[in-house]
Structures are given as structure tokens and as C-alpha cells.
Design brief:
Elements (H helix, E strand, L loop, with lengths): L5 H6 L16 H12 L2 H9 L5 E3 L25 E6 L6 E6 L11 E3 L9 H16 L8 H17 L3 H51 L1
Parallel strand pairs: 1-4
Antiparallel strand pairs: 2-3
Length: 220
């Protein structure tokens, strides 16, 4: 069910800048953006409207090979409370390294950009919707762009729960399954490369042993 019109999205300036030049026609990515922004609850939509400069869209044309785009640094990343440095403490005879927190170090203002790859134009529409909803959820939840591994995993779980709450559970499940297959294939590919590399090292090692043996016999 749609909660707002396409015109409302444009009036609230929460859509990519290309919309105002008519470049979105026929694009799966732009259609997915419209689908998500028209369906998310009012409270979450208000987060985007109240601070429109906190993020920007980057939806490059499928035909574009390269471009230089201006993005305003309108987002203030929260300070990393868990950032640590290592210093040496103790007496000169018993110095040892110790990690201490430097919590509160501010990041410079930066641009928070939602990039949607042209490859999505070749994907199913529900996959594009899931991808857009996923990234919008990161914005709504004000997630850290720079996060340690454990926090990253927590944020991803929060995003999944949020987009399911928005009514995109079917799309989210399909996207998750696709990513799982991709990661499995990628892992198999790297494992195969490692095995090939190991076999090559063993072959080279055997060749060196054989060459040494031949040279030794020649000396006899």
C-alpha cells in the first residue's frame, strides 16, 4: 500500500537529482526508489525529509563510463568511542604495550552517498527494491559508515529487521538468498585458487628437488 504520491517525493526533495531532468524514465533503480519511498512508514520517511542534506543518491547511467560528481559534505559521522591507540606504559625496565581509548575523536564532515550500481538494471525488480530498502534503512537508522566487524554485523541485522517491518520481507529474503549463493560461489572460487596455488608450489618444489638430484648425480 502506498502512503504518499510520486509528486510528494519530488516536493520533499528525497529523490535523486536526475528526477528533475526526466532521466529516470525506464530505470529499474529509479522505479525501486519510488517503490520504497512511497511505502515506508511516515515516521521513517520523516527522517529523510527532516534532514535531506544528510545523504545523497548516486545512480549513474548504465551508459556512463565515468563522471565527476559534486557531493556536499552534509553528514557528521558520530565520534568513534571505541577507537584505541597503543602506548607503552610502566617503568623503563618493564615497559609494556597497553591499549587505551581515545573515545570522542570527531570525524570530519563527509558526504553520505547511496550508490546504486548500473548492474541493478539487469536484476529482477524485487531484488532492486530490496537493495534500495536496505540502503535507505541504513540512513533511517543513522548507522555508522565506519564500523568494526561486530558492529557491522549488528547493523546488518537491524537493517534486515527494519525492511521486514516495512513490508519488504519477501524481497529481503530473496536478496539474502542471492547474496548467500554469491558468497558461497566466491568462497569456492578463492578456495580453488588457493588449492591451485598450493599445487603449483608443490610442483615447483618437486621440480627443484629433481633438478638438484640431477645436478648432484652429474657431479658424481
Amino acid at each position: 500500500m502506498y502512503l504518499r504520491s510520486r509528486d510528494t517525493l519530488e516536493e520533499d526533495v528525497v529523490v535523486p537529482r536526475e528526477w528533475f531532468f526526466g532521466f529516470q524514465s525506464g530505470s529499474i533503480r529509479h522505479a525501486a526508489i519510488e517503490e520504497v519511498l512511497r511505502r515506508i512508514p511516515d515516521a521513517d520517511y520523516a527522517v529523510l525529509v527532516d534532514d535531506p542534506q544528510s545523504f545523497e543518491w548516486f545512480v549513474p547511467s548504465y551508459e556512463s563510463l565515468a563522471s565527476t560528481q559534486p557531493f556536499a559534505p552534509g553528514y557528521q559521522h558520530p565520534p568513534d568511542e571505541r577507537q584505541t591507540v597503543h602506548v607503552k606504559v610502566g617503568t623503563p625496565k618493564g615497559m609494556k604495550p597497553e591499549a587505551i581509548s581515545t573515545g570522542g575523536i570527531p570525524y570530519p564532515k563527509m558526504a553520505r552517498v547511496v550508490y546504486l550500481s548500473p548492474r541493478l538494471e539487469k536484476s529482477a525488480f524485487d531484488i532492486a527494491v530490496a537493495v534500495v530498502a536496505h540502503e535507505v534503512a541504513h540512513i533511517v537508522l543513522d548507522h555508522r559508515l565506519i564500523a568494526p566487524v561486530d558492529l557491522y554485523a549488528t547493523q546488518e541485522k537491524e537493517v534486515y529487521d527494519k525492511i521486514c517491518e516495512w513490508g519488504f520481507e519477501r524481497e529481503a529474503r530473496k536478496h539474502w538468498a542471492m547474496c548467500k549463493r554469491r558468497d558461497t560461489l566466491e568462497e569456492k572460487r578463492w578456495r580453488s585458487l588457493d588449492e591451485d596455488s598450493s599445487s603449483e608450489r608443490l610442483r615447483r618444489g618437486s621440480d627443484r628437488v629433481l633438478s638438484s638430484e640431477v645436478a648432484r648425480k652429474g657431479d658424481l
